[in-house]
Specification:
By secondary structure, this protein is an all-alpha fold.
């Protein structure tokens, strides 16, 4: 009796996995048809990058002040500076 229940649960699990795969594939195909990328939008635009570099090069503002003003993280700040 225990094996029967186990096999039924396994069958439902396999069916659910197949449904998930189909939904994911349909979503990816939909994005490809619309000629969109599925990536995250960029946090740092070229305008923001310039507003970061100028005060940093002049030494006018601290890193913390620049990050708070533009609302970015320190890691994004340093990534921009090192590019």
């Amino acid at each position: 009796m225990g094996m029967l229940v186990f096999n039924i649960c396994a069958a439902f699990s396999e069916m659910e996995l197949e449904l998930i795969r189909k939904r994911v594939k349909a979503g990816i195909d939909s994005v490809k048809q619309q000629d969109r990328k599925g990536d995250r939008p960029k946090v740092l635009t070229t305008e923001k990058a310039e507003t970061i570099r100028v005060p940093h090069q002049v030494g006018k503002m601290s890193v913390k002040e620049i990050c708070n003003t533009i609302r970015i993280s320190r890691s994004v700040f340093y990534r921009c500076i090192n590019q």
